[in-house]
Input
Amino acid sequence: MLRKSDCVVAAVAAAWGSCAAAAPSGTSDLNAALFGLRESAIGVHLSPSGNQVAYVAPAPGGGVIAFVANVQTGDVKPFLKSGKGPEKLRWCAFVTEQRLVCRYTAIIEDAGVLLPFSRLIAVNSDGSGMKELGQRQSFYDAGYRQYDGNIIDWLPGSGGSVLMERSYVPEAGNGATRMVRRTDGLGVDRIDTETVKVTVVEGARRDASFYLSDGQGHVRVMGSEGTTNGVYDQMLTGKTRYYYRTIGANDWKTLIDYVKDEDVEALAVDATDNALYLLKPLNGRKALYRMKLDGSGATELVASHPQVDIDDVVRSANGQKVIGYTYSVDRPQVEYFDPEYKALSEALSKAIPNLPLIRFEGASVDGNKILMFAGADNDPGRYFVFDKQSKNLAEIMLERPDLENRPLAQMKSVGVKLGDGVIVPAYLTLPPGKEAKNLPAVVLPHGGPSSRDQWGFDWLAQYLASRGYAVLQPEYRGSAGFGDAWLLQNGFKSWRTAISDITASARWLAAQGIADPNRLAVVGWSYGGYMTMVGVTFYPDLFAAGVDLFGMVNFFTFFEHTEPWMAAISTTEYGDPKTQADLLRDLSPLGKLDRIKTPLMVQHGANDTNVPVVEAEQIVENLKRRGVPVEYIVFPDEGHGFRKEKNRITSTVKMVEFFVAQLVARQPATTPTRGVHR
Output
């Protein structure tokens, strides 16, 4: 039985180079190396027979390798590798026992502009027969196709064909021939992954934004956006019209007329129910509904929760039937309404009680073998194959083998009570085996902002705890998942409330005696980086150190340099720079950096197309000009986040070195000082 342990896999050393060392060159911080390593198995997928799994893993020295492993014999073979540059394999999944589909992404530069793109390819399990599944690129393409499509139905048992939602770009400027490609928009094709023979299922439409299959080869729902008064104008209006078709019909009928995207979210079509599962508001929170696709429009409530949103549906392991739904109060929960999966989940929970986070990831075609993942806050997780006939549960793979048998911290759900009676939910991670008293502490606001943290293994919180820091992750107002009243307008327009909750959480940590008020730091990624900058700007006496990772400080330069689609969404979400300049000026910390006294570290990716590196450059230039301590690290081969292990490890090492200088070296406070009673 396959079970990876000390290295990515032994086959890496034999076929693709030596295994990664326990710690990278240039650092003696073993914890940074161990926690900074990426998962050794990403996107694990079970083959139709249930005898093989495919997954991708970081390659020694950079890049990503795709593997196929026999779960019985433990034989592991690499079959595909991405380079060390911005190109990256994301996942690979079986279509047949020998044929797979893989997603890879990369960034190119076009006329000085960085453009991310993604492609789907088909390849054999020995690396041969590689073919691209999207539309072929032409010299005369009228635009750049950043996204080539998505598999919406894997068509189990079809012999290697899939249903693919494909993006089409027409040709322009080719006057030498009448053979000009004019197809434009998003359509659905049935593609033979061996021959790449294409059969059109849904003709491309410029107004189409997505399609949903019923898992049995039938496209039943389509979304349409980008229209004004019924005329397609390529503008994102924030509204979608939903179409459906009845069984056996070809024509599209209106299911739901134009509604705001936040008011309806289509999740899945279930052929057994002949219905669409969707999220809609109920009493200020997202609830799960089932809407018939028989022409009646009959809609019934499936599930709601009085405290939080319903997040998503769960489909059967073969990706067809809808069997349950998910939500999270303090921990992720799955409620199964399918009796077979409900019984299986309860039985597995008893068999592995220390691993409460259980997900069904896939199944063999006959449904007898099920791939599942199980993890916890102090266990990064492991994969199992359950044989329904023999009732055998076999562990096949660890997600982070290098952390096996190491003491890991527990993540505790806490409530931060504010002066007005509001309770901010948060997650607290404390150093294992150490008294939780007067510790140096890190407040870690999440990105998004329309996101939230979840109970479970968090590599950065675990690393900081291993170095002796208390870590608090507040779910400040503006976070998603807790309903409309908690989300407010969004984290940007309601930034004052969000930062008030974050700083109150820092003070709470000190008031509880857990944190030393003189040794508080704030660290954030993306929107969390923005909150870090707001925190050290408006609360200069609270934090002794701040680390901004990929955050923004100037909405005007952000709109100017970010990707067009991001700018279009941000205009709606945050404000229009042409008509709401005062609002964006108020949102931007750049004009208030003269208030900063807190030592700051700024880290950014040079290839960041989401929050361009010019945001970081403005911070550093401003603070250096004023003589405020600032450390700046730019990663030339990263975008919006860390994809390379060596960079992630370097980031964490430099962060803790910065904390040692700014926090650990400080004498613990004998009485609360740094802004705790402000």
Notes: The CA atoms of residues 226 and 237 lie 6 Å apart. Confidence is low (pLDDT under 50) at residues 3-25, 228-234.
